[in-house]
Amino acid sequence: MYNPGMKPSLKTRFAPSPTGLMHFGNLRTALFNYLYAERFQGIFLLRIEDTDTARSEQIFSEAIKQDLSWLGLEWQEGPFFQSERQAIYQEYYEQLVQSRRVYPCFCTEEELAITRKVQMAAHQPPRYPGTCRRLSQAEIELRQSRGMPSTLRFEVSDGQTIGFEDVIKGKQQFDSSHIGDFIIRRQDGSASFMFCNAIDDALMGVTHALRGDDHLTNTPRQILILQALGLSIPHYGHFPTILGPDSRPLSKRNGSRSLQELRENGFLPLGILNYLSRLGHHDPDLSLLSLATLAEHFDLARISSSPAHYDVAQLNHWQKEAMHHCSWETCWDLLPDTVKKRVPPNPELRQKFIEAIQPNLVMPAEALPLAEAIFNEKLSFSPAISKVLEEAGVEFFNVALKYLEEDLEVTYSSLITHLQQITGLKGKALFFPLRAALMGDLHGPEIAKILDLMGQEKVKSRFREVIVLLKESKHATNL
């Protein structure tokens, strides 16, 4: 596969359309282009392709920049806005008109739809049949004088083979007979994606255009445009589509979430980056990696030829890794206000709280029941937890309480040793009652850290609470 070596002039680009929020598909495109540029000390360029004025919105342009910055994908050039470059595109339209490579097309959408329907019924590839290519100059002028709207089509000669070396997929060849004349300027005068995307790549010095394989059939058209204008052609690379759980292209309908939503829900940038960098790209290192290390490991040869499948479990795995490796301050900042309100305003206590619960968190919101269990005055016990407490019995907690009252410096290990010696219990029969009494659950943070966080007085209060509960329960049973 393609290996460019160390090229200081290497330049990639991310060229989104500001028609919505960023999702995994365009996020991965941005990341792969960034990693490739970083690996070879190249330039990562941001270009906002906003020529579709009906659908493009400034709010989405700002969201794109915010999302990239939040992930740490900083661009070295741009952002450029195609809506500000119409005069440049017009110059190149005029060149193509002068060289007779283009012609006006007056066909309506209805006429084109009927043509496509007929072609597909005949099992032919849908392509423009060249209807307006055959118009004489007089016929063109007559239609223009009548105010008939027109697009501008690029003329594609039959019998050509358009080939290029895809830096990911290898050698690609296309028969021009299957392409047909295509639109490069819309009826409203704005540049089509096919045209301005290719022009800008050439003028901005993009050396590598890495994108999803849904653009693969666009590439021979863009090569034809650039050849006709004598402009440089970048190296193209197309990686497979991301599929959802239903094996259809990933979209909002089958599970894709915007980066804004992920950020608001407490996902960490490093977790998202580690997940996306492995979505269709093999990295033999399975540990959580920094963005710089991800770039060092990025290799076009490691991109799979098969579609990548979006996997929520894998996303959550990398979120968990990122959550466990972040600083306690970062973890605290991620917590919802509902959690922070439950923790006393003491910096040392906050740090102890985070250090106790951080190994058990995947999402920040999961800290709420832990904060309630630790800092609420009283606990409510589910039937399953009550059963564990009843099986341990009143005497178990009397022994624990008495030991705490006799010694002001009780540690977790000393308490466990004492309980084991007195009760003869071990394993789950020993650990589960303690966890149940302190946290109202059988799973969670290390009990040693919880004891330290709660303090001895609160622990004694919890044991007294359980003793009263068990006595009342026994009395009610006897009645």
What brief labels describe this structure?
disordered N terminus, Glutamyl-tRNA Synthetase, domain 3, Glutamyl-tRNA Synthetase, domain 2, 49% helix, 479 residues, Rossmann fold, mainly alpha
What does this entry show, briefly?
By secondary structure, the protein is mainly alpha-helical. The chain has helices at residues 24-39, 58-71, 86-98, 109-121, 137-145, 193-203, 218-229, 259-264, 269-277, 291-297, 312-325, 328-334, 337-340, 347-357, 367-375, 383-392, 394-406, 412-423, 428-439, 447-454, 456-478, and strands at residues 11-14, 43-48, 77-81, 102-105, 151-154, 161-166, 170-175, 182-185, 208-212, 235-239, 242-243, 308-309.
Characterization of the model:
The chain is elongated. The model is unreliable at 1-7 (pLDDT under 50). The chain has 21 helices and twelve strands. The chain is mainly alpha-helical. It has five domains: 11-82 and 192-243, 3-Layer(aba) Sandwich (Rossmann fold), CATH 3.40.50; 87-185, Alpha-Beta Complex (Glutamyl-tRNA Synthetase, domain 3); 252-327, Glutamyl-tRNA Synthetase, domain 2, CATH 1.10.1160; 328-376; 378-479, Arc Repressor Mutant, subunit A, CATH 1.10.10. It has a three-stranded parallel β-sheet, with helices on one face. The N and C termini lie far apart (81 Å). The longest helix is centred in the last third of the chain and has 23 residues, at 456-478.
